[in-house]
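Co-fold these.
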Amino acid sequence: MATKRETSRPKTATTFKKTTPVSATAPVKIALLGFGTVGSSLARVIAVSKLPGVELTHIYNRNVERKRVSDAAKCVPASVVWTENFNDIVNSRAEIVVELMGGLDPAEGWLKKCFAAGKSVVTANKQLIAYRGVALSRLAAKHGVQLVHGAAVAGGVPVIPGILQGLGGDQITRISGIVNGTCNYILSHMETGAEYAAVLADAQGLGYAEASPSADVDGFDARAKLCILSRIALHAELDPDAVATQTISTVEAVDFAYAKELGCTIRQVSRAQLDAKSKLVHARVAPMLVPLTSPIAWSHGTQNMVVTSGRFGGDVVFSGHGAGGEPTAVAVVSDILAVAQKSVAVELPVRRREVTGEFMAPHYLRFVVNDKPGIVSGIAGALAKVGANIDSLLQRPGYPKHSLPFVITTEACLTSTIEKAVAAMAKMDCMLERPLCLQILTVDDKAE
Ligand code: HSE
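Predicted complex below.
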């Protein structure tokens, strides 16, 4: 039976609904859509924690019999109804539907049916929330139910509830960090000498990676999460497809060696900041050089880290396991408890904002050339032409002359400026591959 809930939206501040301890009321019935890595971990966490006041009543999955007889199903109470018919969920007495299927279709349509049936939804579906989150939240409010998605970003790290509930009083102007566990797993292992392909295969085997590796390594998973964070922290609704991404697959072992000489390591960084004057959001997901003194450099394995910068409160760091069944299940259970206790923080209104990939930053350029005289002067010429100033030149000994990797770093310049120079350099006949161009994060870097 659906409970009656507030429908009004906040006007000026984050507000909280009246709290009722879960155990003081009849158990909240929940139905689960999807019994994969996170879904089965969720059932386990609920069973092991013996949470009072939460009762799992239904599990939906395609080919459900295969799931019902799996080892992962052993912790599921015998009373649970297993089904491959979504109508059994929407027609059930469950008050909260937990959506862990992922993807836009059929999840979006099914969520709408759940709202119409008076059911709140807890979801970890980052693509759905990134692309349709604002409209779905409005629809949920219209039906007097909740849509909560704390598990959609950074797995077990409570960055969404942390920002909503703990930082609602600040004006966050910038977010940056690591929100894809697979890329962090790959890059932090490459830092200690692992090969890209082997470590990607490990991440897939451990269940961290998306079904398509491209979603992780090319930045699409992180970009969806960055858009969700921009909405929560910057109150800016972004078109995920407009956010610039750069693959980590072109980063090589030699880049970690050169980065170390520069006092840095390499991480896939997602960053967004709101320009107070233009109201543009500067956003990018890309491998970047990160100073070893930055907390972002300290994240290893599947650890995620989000740093928020507030006008009044300064920097706040959120960190923990960003991928994996149980950490993500913890976030889902916490959302279930928040809905059950009617203590979900309400978001401030958001505005649609245009996105630009432009940042003012120093850059790292790595070339692989067939060595001959005049290469450095050609590169210097291309940089001088766009007005970019060289900061350092690094060439480690021992590489073969016919395939020589060396590095130039520049002083801060605009992304579009350095891209123009890289396009010109890529045409030089000594270049064996397109130069790798990475932003270097600095403490006081800013968007332009
Ligand atoms: N593939 C994602 C990651 C899973 O590696 O972070 C968690 O969203």
